[in-house]
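Example (one chain per record):
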Amino acid sequence: MESREDWLFPVLSFSLFDLWLLVFPFEGFLLPPDLRTSLTAVFIVFHAFGYFFIFSSLPGGHFDSISRFFTSVSAFITTLFPFITHFSLRLFLFALLGFSSSFILSRIALALARSSSPLLLSAVSLSIANLLVLLLFHLFTVESSSFILPLLGLSLASALLIPGGGYGKGVLSRELLLRVPLVFLLYFFIATSYIQLSKYYSWFSAGGFDALLYVLGVILAFLLYRKWQEGALITAILSLIALIGFLFTLFKGSVAPFLLALVQLVAGFNDIYALSLAFRSINVLRSFSLFMGVSLLGAFAGLPMVFSDWWVKGASKILFFIMALIFVALYFSGILDGRKEEKKGIEELLRRKGVFKESFSKREWEVLTGILEGKSFKEISQELGISQSTVRTYSFRVYSKLGVGSKKELIRKLKE
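Predicted structure:
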């Protein structure tokens, strides 16, 4: 059974981080209006760069100390930011903040992955954060930033309470890679829709409907992906509807309320879908940083529709080309080299845990590796051509040999 610390610190840290992200660098509620667009664009670029650095550099055993350092840097910058007035210095600090804060969320993701229900804890954290945003929106104004930001900076330090470990080894599967362009497009859709509807957003968010609908989207998405991991089709369809829908606002603004509601629901679906992909890999550090970086690139691609900065316009024009290069490079590299390589990574993990293939029958081993790949009993049964009840029988034998009583205990034991 999980102790309170196993889920409390990750949920607390994730909730506070998402709250910080929404009211400070992303939506810029606590930033002066004349600085929001430039600072947000800089943050997104360097935040994405931070995730790709984590993905490509594989800090491994050094990640704990590195992430602790950058957590402290992010907390320090946030605390001091209200008292810094020079524009160039603010731009530099926001770039550093974007890069350093990527290590905080990656650290939190590793802690969530070590729990028995990472997607549930993620959904709870995102919901809490958006409800806190709603509370702050009604209680404070931009003038309160000198009081709120130091508190938010200190709250980031909660990630230091999370123990390190659980980095995982092995490559990511080609099956996971094929979802990279989809995640990019989903976030491009949602960001573009937000931007096109931005002139209607102030009155819509005033009542807190945006936060409540996002929470609803997160809850519905969690229920969907818990039962059906390939529910991406629904997310893609909803995103496409939202993207097409904003075009109608160019001719008929009266549909904006409906579209704004839909966009918030889709945002919740997108976030949970991206997290579900990250947690399906045995190498959570790499998969999480990859999908976070790609989602930010997708959002950045829509910025020129509202941002006039020349560098934003120029950078976004080549993003789709960059995505194509990334796809080809990863496809032919050793980083992502098919399902067999992923199974090798799992076998390596099991050997380090003292679990050897020779101790199991062929079917028991196939069921064990299938569980560690994040597959449901239904998916394992379809892949092996046997019934779900037979899969459960083999899983019980595996549990008995490993001294655990359930699928959750098995995953927890082998991921710690």
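Caption: The chain has three domains: 1-167, 170-337, 353-415.
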